[in-house]
Amino acid sequence: MFAAENGLKGDPRLKAISEAIRVIPNFPKPGIMFQDITTLLLDHNAFKHTIDIFVDRYRDMDISVVAGVEARGFMFGPSIALAIGAKFVPLRKPRKLPGEVISESYVLEYGTDSLEMHVGAVRPGDRALIIDDLVATGGTLFAAINLLERSGAEVTECACVIGLPIVKERFRSNGKRLYFLVEPRQLEDCC
Amino acid sequence: MASDLPQGDDRIAKIASSIRVIPNFPKPGVMFQDITTLLLDPRAFRDTIDLFVERYKGQDISVVAGIEARGFIFGPPVALAIGAKFVPMRKPNKLPGEVISEEYTLEYGADVMEMHVGAVQAGERAIIMDDLIATGGTLCAAIKLLERVGVHVVECACVIELPELKGRDRLGDRPLDRTSCLEGIPGTAIEGFEPYVDGGRKRGPGAIDEVWCSTSPVSLESGQGDQGSALGAFGF
């Protein structure tokens, strides 16, 4: 199923992108149908389409920061940042960033985790886009939003390759915007 | 070839000056080369990617392999620009599909690198990218993974090299390219780092000695280039 966004409905690029994503059942644990984007990265045309669609959407939105969530957000964010002339800011798991950081915790199914960002990477007045490969509950993205807003940036939108419409609603009810290209594939969609 | 680039020196100096040094990270005595400040400078980041793209475009490279996690930042833009696929080389248990694994030694202990089965095919030509080469252990593991499935590793490409850690020797006769060479002072001990001990492999006679060097070491933010400071870092 493809995200029926304005101007993109029926876009053949979305079909190619969706079909390039591999479903791995029962990873990381039973019952989860993992959406594997590594096969998208192996398909140069589909990968290029993915970046092009994001760049077309964000190039005129005056975005000065693209923040990518470790680690798969690093695979998409920098190319977008380079194309729109924005800085790229990695949002990382604890103790990876070497300089002074600010930290935001978020809840997992069992326990908590946290996301860190370098102090000074983002300034008040920066307009930010947050990128990850997939949004599930939105917990990670909301932590990312908090990091950026605490630093005085305005988060214009969160963007993912894969998402669910119901999560978009959750963002909207919190006054935030979520954009994604395709919905998760089922195993039977894959040949 | 780097020496043919008319603007090569200018871009490289700017790239080098955009890299921040964090002393005593991850442990005392290590001067960590922080590329996140390079990523905050769109011109410097663009120049970094352009230098690699200029070098590898038209070389029939079909695979750019990037080492987790900072290799994921530089590899995909290069892959997209040269028409290659991007293959992430990851820590254990991250890749969801069937993988092949290669163990490699760290200063203390060992780690494992993984690649998806089927990501690459025998006969493909690959480059491997990371932000920095220190001892070369990680790059070596990546080379082995690719060669095990019949891929020809054309070159390893990094933004930063720490030549005194002799990572280049560890790659044997496989070429290394990097955009910015941070010259340590010969003979300077790097505090906190065990002397690098190799099994005796030396660079083969055919090794490319193409180096792009910035002219001055990256110094601490607070001071001018201190010619006496020891430079060292662990690439993760």
From TrEMBL, chain A:
<dbReference type="InterPro" id="IPR000836">
    <property type="entry name" value="PRTase_dom"/>
</dbReference>
<dbReference type="GO" id="GO:0003999">
    <property type="term" value="F:adenine phosphoribosyltransferase activity"/>
</dbReference>
<dbReference type="InterPro" id="IPR050120">
    <property type="entry name" value="Adenine_PRTase"/>
</dbReference>
<comment type="similarity">
    <text>Belongs to the purine/pyrimidine phosphoribosyltransferase family.</text>
</comment>
<dbReference type="Pfam" id="PF00156">
    <property type="entry name" value="Pribosyltran"/>
</dbReference>
<dbReference type="GO" id="GO:0006168">
    <property type="term" value="P:adenine salvage"/>
</dbReference>
<dbReference type="InterPro" id="IPR029057">
    <property type="entry name" value="PRTase-like"/>
</dbReference>
<keyword id="KW-0963">Cytoplasm</keyword>
<protein>
    <recommendedName>
        <fullName>adenine phosphoribosyltransferase</fullName>
        <ecNumber>2.4.2.7</ecNumber>
    </recommendedName>
</protein>
<dbReference type="GO" id="GO:0006166">
    <property type="term" value="P:purine ribonucleoside salvage"/>
</dbReference>
<keyword id="KW-0328">Glycosyltransferase</keyword>
<keyword id="KW-0808">Transferase</keyword>
<feature type="domain" description="Phosphoribosyltransferase">
    <location>
        <begin position="44"/>
        <end position="163"/>
    </location>
</feature>
<comment type="subunit">
    <text>Homodimer.</text>
</comment>
<dbReference type="GO" id="GO:0005829">
    <property type="term" value="C:cytosol"/>
</dbReference>
<comment type="pathway">
    <text>Purine metabolism; AMP biosynthesis via salvage pathway; AMP from adenine: step 1/1.</text>
</comment>
<dbReference type="InterPro" id="IPR005764">
    <property type="entry name" value="Ade_phspho_trans"/>
</dbReference>
<keyword id="KW-0660">Purine salvage</keyword>
From TrEMBL, chain B:
<keyword id="KW-0660">Purine salvage</keyword>
<dbReference type="InterPro" id="IPR050120">
    <property type="entry name" value="Adenine_PRTase"/>
</dbReference>
<dbReference type="Pfam" id="PF00156">
    <property type="entry name" value="Pribosyltran"/>
</dbReference>
<comment type="subunit">
    <text>Homodimer.</text>
</comment>
<keyword id="KW-0328">Glycosyltransferase</keyword>
<dbReference type="GO" id="GO:0006166">
    <property type="term" value="P:purine ribonucleoside salvage"/>
</dbReference>
<keyword id="KW-0963">Cytoplasm</keyword>
<dbReference type="InterPro" id="IPR000836">
    <property type="entry name" value="PRTase_dom"/>
</dbReference>
<dbReference type="GO" id="GO:0005829">
    <property type="term" value="C:cytosol"/>
</dbReference>
<comment type="similarity">
    <text>Belongs to the purine/pyrimidine phosphoribosyltransferase family.</text>
</comment>
<keyword id="KW-0808">Transferase</keyword>
<dbReference type="InterPro" id="IPR029057">
    <property type="entry name" value="PRTase-like"/>
</dbReference>
<dbReference type="InterPro" id="IPR005764">
    <property type="entry name" value="Ade_phspho_trans"/>
</dbReference>
<dbReference type="GO" id="GO:0003999">
    <property type="term" value="F:adenine phosphoribosyltransferase activity"/>
</dbReference>
<dbReference type="GO" id="GO:0006168">
    <property type="term" value="P:adenine salvage"/>
</dbReference>
<comment type="pathway">
    <text>Purine metabolism; AMP biosynthesis via salvage pathway; AMP from adenine: step 1/1.</text>
</comment>
<feature type="domain" description="Phosphoribosyltransferase">
    <location>
        <begin position="42"/>
        <end position="170"/>
    </location>
</feature>
<protein>
    <recommendedName>
        <fullName>adenine phosphoribosyltransferase</fullName>
        <ecNumber>2.4.2.7</ecNumber>
    </recommendedName>
</protein>
